[in-house]
Amino acid sequence: MQITVHRADTRGQVDFGWLQSKHTFSFGHYYDPERVHFGALRVINDDTVAGGKGFGMHHHDNMEIISIPLSGDLEHKDSMGNQTVIRSGDIQVMSAGTGIHHSEYNKNKDLPVKFLQIWVLPDKRNVIPRYDQVTLDPASMNNRLTQVLSPDAGDAGVWIHQQAWFHLGRFDKAFTQEYSLKKKGNGVYLFILSGDLILNGQTYHERDGLGISGTDVVKISSTGPAEFLLMEVPLIS
User: Fold this and answer.
1) 3-state secondary structure string, 196-227?
2) d(CA 86, CA 92)
3) What is the per-residue pLDDT across 101-112, written as a single tens digit (0 to 9) for each?
4) Count: domains in the chain
5) CATH number at residue 38
6) Alpha helices in the chain (DSSP H)
7) In 3-state terms, what secondary structure has residue 143?
8) Strand, helix or coil at 50?
């Protein structure tokens, strides 16, 4: 097993006043040639947007874009006519394909909104743009890995144009579970949302990221209550 560690305090960061963002991988003004991507996983941005502020209408193409709200209300509008609000417990996906414009704003004037924006390189280019979102059942998520994304439209969660599977983990204290990779040759990127996890005898903390390769099974243990995102992706160069 090979593990690449990206500690929380080594991430790139920007402060635009209305936007506080921390970048696990190179993005915008932050560039590190050693941290451009992990296989097909290209972006993990940990964003906090001030009340009433947000990203105006802007363009994307040929990228699978996943938004995971952590707190607050995020209002989405796009050039396909979608207008929605996503909240903690929702998972949103856009296949940008041939091109899409969208905006993201904090719907509330007095509270920040916090969310992860994740980009995955697609396995098909120039597809028809699409939008989808699902709401998870928090009561069913304790002490298990809940699938929230896959390559299959009929499977649990949202789907994207890539051989990737995402799971959310919510573990109580001293809970252990193994994850078996779905596709041989893939890798796993583990991003800790809260709490501490033990992997391969080492302890990792809130907002640490771990790129894991060279194994078919990943064993994860919690030291206390913990929440994390497990992302299985192809290890493309």
Assistant:
1) CEEECCEEECCCCEEEEECCCEEEEEECCCEE
2) 8
3) 999 999 999 999
4) 2
5) 2.60.120.10
6) none
7) coil
8) coil
